[in-house]
Amino acid sequence: MAETSSPVALYDEAASLQALQRYGILDTPMEPAYDDLAGIAAHVCEAPVALISLLDSHRQWFKASVGLPLRETPLDQSVCRYAVRQPGVFIVPDLAKDARFAHFSIVTQENPLRFYAGAPLVTPDGYALGTLCVLDHRPRHLSQKAQDMLCALARQVIRLLELKRANDRQGQMLVELEEARRQMAVLAHTDVLTGLANRRSFTARLLQEQALLRRDGEPACLLMMDIDHFKRVNDVHGHHVGDQALQLFATLCRDVFRAADMVSRWGGEEFLALLPATRVEQAQAVAQRVHDALTTHPVPGVTPPLALTVSMGLSNFDPLRPLDITLRALDSALYAAKREGRNRTVVV
Ligand SMILES: Nc1nc2c(ncn2[C@@H]2O[C@H](COP(=O)(O)OP(=O)(O)OP(=O)(O)O)[C@@H](O)[C@H]2O)c(=O)[nH]1
């Protein structure tokens, strides 16, 4: 048995296992980069077998295996387990003559392995994860030069593992970044209180819809809705109840409108809905359903029960008319509804 210089390895079963798990390498497929290093180790050490062996909790698992058709063996059959417990290359000139290993199946099998040399795989923070080892069918030794090369190759294995970890981290960061970007896009398009589309995103949608309508000529309607005496709700019951009332209104809209319709929070207590493929008479029926839903769904947690009412302006969506003119007409219809006593819909 002999040693050469190599990084000082710390083998602490639990900590080393934890360090190994951080690389996420166990049970990954064979990869040419690791196979190459094992192949070079076999060549440099003139050995028929070379392994990149990682010490798991109950087994040694081979990331690369040259000349041995195995991916893992039980831990109690592992020579590498001894190799990681000491600094430098661990060499067993004849496994059959070493009481610790003579009974191992690699030694007792047909065409047994007799020689072992393993360089520990030491992480930058000093944990030994396993070994890069070579084995031979005959008892022998390993030159100092070859031992140095084995250590150098072991360091390259660690570099590959570090690279993998950096790539994995980068991949994870990209996933997180994409998720944050998606959430920001949603937030940019959504009214936080009600979860409805905000005015900005809805304006874009209206312009889009206008272009579509110009092409296919389908009827569509716009419905401007404004909760009546909402200032009073705030003043009498507090801002918190006012917010709840807005949320209730949004929830009822989600129930009343069809999935193809789109409702937005246009301003404070003002909501604008687009009803594609809908004629004015059909939209009037939808508006009535909103009025009805409000009478049967008072604002939660308020006594005596507080039922909201809403005034609405309704018009067909003429794609040939500039959007601001359409919106102004809707506004006028809405204020006509207010003037006429609220809780009603006025059609332009
Ligand atoms: N709680 C709450 N109140 C809001 C919000 N946005 C706007 N408001 C309030 O909505 C009220 C709107 O009041 P007005 O524009 O006077 O209209 P109104 O009281 O609904 O009266 P009419 O529209 O004429 O029926 C104001 O008191 C705003 O402060 C909000 O996000 N939360």
From TrEMBL:
InterPro entries membership: Diguanylate_Cyclase (IPR050469), GAF (IPR003018), GAF-like_dom_sf (IPR029016), GGDEF_dom (IPR000160), Nucleotide_cyclase (IPR029787), Rev_trsase/Diguanyl_cyclase (IPR043128)
Enzyme Commission no: 2.7.7.65
Entry-linked Gene3D superfamilies: 3.30.450.40, 3.30.70.270
Signal peptide stretch: none
Keywords recorded for this protein, A-Z: Nucleotidyltransferase, Transferase
EC top class named in words: transferase
GO molecular function: diguanylate cyclase activity
The name this protein goes by in its record: diguanylate cyclase
Source organism: Acidovorax facilis
